[in-house]
Design goal:
Layout (H helix, E strand, L loop, with lengths): L19 H12 L6 E4 L23 H18 L3 E4 L9
Parallel strand pairs: 1-2
This protein binds zinc ion.
């Protein structure tokens, strides 16, 4: 199994060097140095539960907003280090209490 296809509860594969987004950003920056790169922050492709956030271990499996935001921030830093100019989650409206 490739690291980028690994899925778990915290979307570990979202910000690894093998992440398809991190790899794509690096390739784009190299091929098109003047290109403005804006990325969608998304965890659902990397979680084993399919939600775009960190799920609490409670009966309702609710989204843990603080943990989700912290994890999205980690992924945003990885995208920035890879060369992205902007990263933004599109799921703010989907997170309760936001
Ligand atoms: Zn998502």
């Amino acid at each position: 199994m490739q690291e980028s296809s690994h899925k778990d509860g915290i979307a570990s594969g979202a910000d690894t060097e093998a992440s398809p987004v991190v790899s794509a950003i690096k390739l784009l920056r190299k091929a098109f140095p003047q290109l403005y790169i804006a990325c969608d922050l998304c965890l659902c492709a990397y979680t084993d539960h399919g939600h775009c956030g960190i799920v609490r271990d409670d009966a309702e499996h609710t989204i843990d907003n603080p943990a989700s935001i912290a994890r999205l921030a980690q992924v945003a830093v990885a995208y920035a280090k890879a060369g992205a100019h902007v990263s933004s989650p599109r799921n703010w409206g989907a997170l309760p209490n936001f």
